[in-house]
Specification:
This protein is of the alpha+beta class. It has 23 helices and 21 strands.
Length: 731
């Protein structure tokens, strides 16, 4: 079943989350009309590959044209034409942006499907949903709107003051001309009275506008302190969680709207103060409130503008290598990476080009053994993006890192921390002048892990997950000097995200329980049990030469590269101990099998089936785990289809009949089989492999079951040693 069909079967509450994903940047009409085609394209790679993105964008327009030409409904044809034109305007010069939008939507769909399979949401996801509650956004929209309305009304008051003052100026000059001709006339006395009334009104209005300004400026100050800045910090926290596989990061456009509207209000108040200053030059009087209050008011407004713009300089896209789009914040030396910064305030004017400079390893903490620098051009000019509502941003696409060498030609020495525990940072700086106000901008990426070999990638990703799970500090580079512990409820949620990121589902409660038992033993029943960083990533599993995380990461890679179709169908039980496996199978009909990941191999999957002897004994048979080497030669579904056993000279037969609990094998895997010829996989369990078997007969070497020609063909097809798989054993 396609991902889009699964989405359409969700409950209304979850469908509302799906609805939130789609807007003018990627209309749902396209998702609906091109569902199968969209899901078959590699949008993740295209998001960081301009040439591939261009090809996919061109193909998408062609697909839209095809669907439009087949549409019978005139209104639908018209709407699709409009959508097609809008996409061309938005993305013709920026196809990678479109690829990123679609990649993000598909990923979030997978996360929503995954959450639908979970019995309950984890604590992190619950807290994030609360933090972006609709009511809070509504309150913010309301408050910003009220401020904008108040500022507009102040514009009218300033205009009224200007009109009254012009009238006063005209009458005052006329009075001066009357004084020269008839200084004691009744008309002149009336005019003096009228002018005094006007001056009183003018004084009242000047005091009124300054009072209203004071109220609005205080309101803006409070808005920035109590709501706008917390919303920004909340977005940054959600960016951290999204970076490690959590819910889709949304809300930046909304933040930009709030920041820009607030800035526009401040700019408008500044213009009103400038206007009042002009009016004072023409007309002033004793105890005029404007000269007394205007300087202080201007300083407050300028200060708010400065801090608002300074805080609006954010890292929109954290550093990421295009080769690993789902593992940001890990950089390999000599490999290009991309990052993007954005200014959330739309500026009315900039006196010159706004240049952004990047600096790596600025202000490193003591104890860091390695330092890096950017050998390529590290300065770019911010530009206005038409497809992002006109904000200023700049994307660095071709940055690289190089390790610093010291005077003797050597690189940094080994420190107390491992390479993947050393944290680094990428800083961004800019400076510009706006309406006479000099503003220094500075922001930085989340902490980065720098590796020199891809074998360090799993350890680096463990560090990225641990940091962003447990702290919202933007730049605690000494974090792993004394890393905090994580509760199992937090950690299990993040581990499930690792699966939902690459597939259409995460881990269910039973699978997470098994993982918890493997990591914590009997403590898994306590969701608040604290897991140390060392136990998660550094200490080897009991009796094994690898850690818990290295084992789990190897399974993720195996699923991603070789098992995704089977995993997405929910056919792999995966995380189940051998003891539980036997408990589940013992009462099932002969030939029932289940699929689980190897506990003793990195990146291995095995299957076990049950047999019943005539005397009632239950036998369990397992095969040597299939790793990436074997699965690169044959798809796993074909292996299950063609697996055969020769025992005691009988004709080879496939012992796998029913996928646990009772699904006929071909019914489960039939549509995943390859149609082309696949040689049978032959195993020789002449003695049972499971300890449950009561037979004590020693294992005998089987007679050759195939002709030399058959053996050669099989060996060539499988590309691995046939002897290594010819004797099943209990792992």
């Amino acid at each position: 079943m396609s991902q889009w069909k699964q989405i359409q079967q969700l409950e209304i509450v979850l469908l509302e989350h799906v609805d939130y994903l789609y807007d003018d940047n990627f209309p749902m009409d396209i998702r609906q009309g091109l569902a199968s085609w969209i899901e078959s394209q590699d949008w993740d790679t295209a998001a960081n590959d301009e040439s591939l993105a261009t090809v996919l964008f061109t193909n998408l327009l062609s697909q839209l044209e095809r669907v439009r030409s087949q549409e019978q409904n005139f209104l639908q044809r018209h709407n699709m034409k409009i959508i097609q034109q809008q996409l061309q305007v938005k993305y013709t010069t920026h196809p990678a942006v479109m690829a990123r939008v679609i990649s993000t939507c598909l990923r979030e769909e997978r996360r929503i499907l995954s959450s639908a399979c979970m019995q309950e949401q984890g604590p992190l996801e619950k807290s994030l949903q609360n933090s972006v509650a609709f009511e809070r956004q509504k309150s913010m929209d309301n408050r910003v709107g009220v401020i904008r309305g108040s500022v507009q009304l102040m514009d009218q008051i300033v205009k009224y003051i200007e009109d009254v003052q012009d009238d006063f100026d005209f009458r005052y000059k006329r009075l001066q001309s009357l004084e020269s001709s008839d200084g004691n006339s009744e008309m002149m006395k009336q005019e003096v009275t009228r002018l005094q009334d006007m001056l009183n009104r003018l004084d009242f209005k000047r005091k009124e506008i300054l009072s209203k300004m004071d109220v609005v400026v205080k309101e803006i100050d409070d808005l920035m302190t109590s709501q706008l800045n917390p919303e920004l910090q909340d977005w940054k926290r959600r960016q951290q969680i999204a970076a490690i596989g959590g819910p889709l990061l949304t809300g930046l456009d909304q933040l930009q709207s709030w920041f820009t509207l607030t800035a526009q209000s401040l700019f408008q108040i500044k213009r009103q103060l400038d206007k009042l200053g002009e009016l004072v030059v023409k007309v002033t009087y004793e105890s005029d409130p404007i000269p007394l209050q205007k300087p202080q008011m201007e300083d407050r407004v300028k200060c708010l503008i400065y801090h608002l713009i300074k805080s609006s300089f954010v890292v929109e896209k954290q550093p990421c290598m295009p080769t690993h789009p789902q593992k940001p914040l890990i950089i390999k030396t000599g490999v290009q990476f991309t990052t993007k910064v954005r200014l959330l305030v739309k500026l009315p004017e900039v006196d010159y080009q706004l240049k952004v400079k990047t600096t790596f390893d600025k202000d490193l903490p003591p104890g860091v053994s390695r330092q890096f620098f950017i050998p390529t051009n590290n300065t770019k000019v911010m530009d206005i993006e038409d497809y992002s509502n006109g904000c200023l941003s700049v994307e660095f696409r071709h940055l690289q890192l190089k390790e610093k060498k010291y005077i003797n030609g050597t690189k940094g020495s080994e420190g107390l921390l491992s390479v993947t525990e050393e944290l680094h940072s990428l800083s961004f700086e800019a400076c510009f002048t706006l309406q006479g106000l000099t503003i220094d901008l500075e922001t930085c990426s989340l902490p980065l892990v720098v590796i020199s070999n891809v074998s360090q990638l799993p350890g680096g990703w463990a560090s990225v997950m641990w940091y962003n799970l447990l702290t919202n500090e933007p730049r605690n580079l000494a974090f792993f000097g004394n890393p905090p512990r994580a509760s199992w409820s937090q950690l299990s949620e993040v581990l499930s995200w690792q699966f939902s990121t690459l597939a259409s589902r995460g881990l269910n409660k039973e699978q997470l329980t098994m993982l918890g038992e493997k990591l914590l033993g009997q403590h898994v029943s306590c969701s608040d049990y604290q897991v140390s960083w060392s136990k998660f990533s550094k200490e080897n599993n009991p009796g094994k030469p690898f850690s818990f995380w290295m084992w789990l990461d190897s399974i993720l890679e195996l699923i991603k590269k070789h098992l995704l179709p089977v995993w997405n169908e929910n056919y792999i039980m995966g995380f189940v101990s051998k003891e539980m496996e036997r408990t589940l199978l013992k009462d099932r009909q002969p030939g029932t099998f289940l699929l689980r990941f190897s506990e003793s191999h990195l990146g291995g999957i095995t299957f076990t089936w049950v047999e019943h002897s005539d005397n009632g004994d239950v036998k369990f048979n397992s095969v040597e785990p299939y790793t990436k080497n074997r699965l690169s030669a044959l798809p796993f579904a074909d292996i299950i289809r063609d697996y055969k056993v020769i025992s005691d000279g009988f004709v080879p037969e496939n012992p796998l009949k029913f996928l646990y609990p009772d699904i006929p094998k071909d019914e489960a895997f039939g549509r995943l089989y390859n149609s082309h010829f696949s040689p049978s996989l032959v195993s020789f369990p002449s003695c049972p492999s499971s300890k449950v078997n009561t037979s004590s007969a020693p294992c005998q070497s089987p007679e050759p079951p195939m002709t030399p020609g058959e053996f050669d063909m099989l060996n060539e097809q499988l590309c691995f040693d046939i002897d290594s798989m010819s004797s099943p054993y209990s792992e």
